[in-house]
Design a protein that fits this description.
Radius of gyration: 20 Å
Shape: globular
CATH architecture: 3-Layer(aba) Sandwich
Distance between the termini: 39 Å
Strand content: 25-35%
Mean pLDDT: 93
Order of helices and strands: HEHEHEHEHHEEEEEEEH
Structural class: alpha/beta
Helix content: 25-40%
Bound molecules: zinc ion
CATH class: Alpha Beta
CATH superfamily: Class I glutamine amidotransferase (GATase) domain
Number of helices: 7
Number of strands: 11
Low-confidence stretches: 18-24
Largest sheet: 9 strands, mixed
Oligomer: single chain
């Protein structure tokens, strides 16, 4: 009988540890205090990369992060900076990245540097670079109707990024239609109507996700055509929590 009790306790203990491993998703987000953040911005001017960088940088300063700003992709090949970076935030729509720069960025993420960003700044960068797209987990292909109003549905209420947020409407911005990697963990979606392209009616599209590339955590949000999209409370929460998430141990 005593044997059986010990056996049952062992099972209970095992269950406890298994549960805590699986509930890690709901763990708290790490503080950005003294975290080294590299904020890289540029590419197509229509996305106002500088205004985006300014807005995010002001928040990062308040959070106590140590920020390095760069308007050049050349920073990805600067070994000393890359080896002393915890988080990379990139806002670079289209443009060209050299093989050397792309490889250096991928290497850093594979080794554990977090990567976060939004809209075309992360999900429509370097269209001719499939290695980069393999890392991000999705690629922009269209925004039917141009600037429109649409609904964002929070589909994962457990993640600390989306926890407590309600589904919301966003106005006068682009609804990204993307090609998505099946392994991403989706946190929010948007459903397409038949108003502009009738054949995509009912398509449920991920709008916010997390994924891994080697040891690195990646966060992406497709909102953000205009920096003013982040005047919306939920959009800003998703973006800023996502940035914290990539540097949280999972
Ligand atoms: Zn856009």
């Amino acid at each position: 009988m005593k044997h059986k009790v010990i056996h049952l306790s062992a099972i209970a203990l095992l269950l406890f540890f298994t549960t805590s491993i699986f509930s890690q998703e709901s763990m708290k987000l790490a503080s950005l205090k003294n975290k080294r953040v590299l904020l890289v911005y540029g590419g197509w001017e229509g996305h106002q990369p500088e205004a985006f960088a300014k807005r995010v940088n002001e928040w990062l300063q308040k959070e106590g992060a140590i920020v390095t700003l760069s308007d050049s992709l050349g920073v990805y090949t600067q070994k000393e900076i890359m080896e002393n970076t915890d988080i990379i935030i990139q806002h670079w729509t289209m443009g060209q990245i050299s093989k050397e720069q792309s490889n250096a960025l991928q290497k850093a993420v594979k080794n554990g540097v977090g990567l976060a960003g939004c809209h075309g700044g992360l999900g429509d960068s370097f269209r001719n670079n499939t290695g980069y797209q393999y890392m991000i987990g999705g690629q922009f292909v269209a925004h039917p109707g141009g600037l429109i109003n649409y609904t964002v549905k929070i589909s994962n209420e457990k993640s600390p990024i989306s926890k407590g947020l309600k589904s919301f409407d966003i106005k006068h911005t682009e609804q990204y239609y993307m090609h998505i990697d099946p392994k991403v963990k989706v946190l929010a979606t948007t459903t397409f109507s038949n108003t502009y392209d009738y054949w995509i009616e009912g398509a449920v599209m991920p709008i916010c996700w997390t994924t891994k590339f080697g040891k690195g955590n990646i966060f992406y949000l497709s909102i953000g055509h205009d920096p003013q999209d982040f005047d919306n409370y939920e959009s800003w929460q998703l973006l800023t929590r996502g940035i914290k998430w990539v540097n949280t141990n999972h």
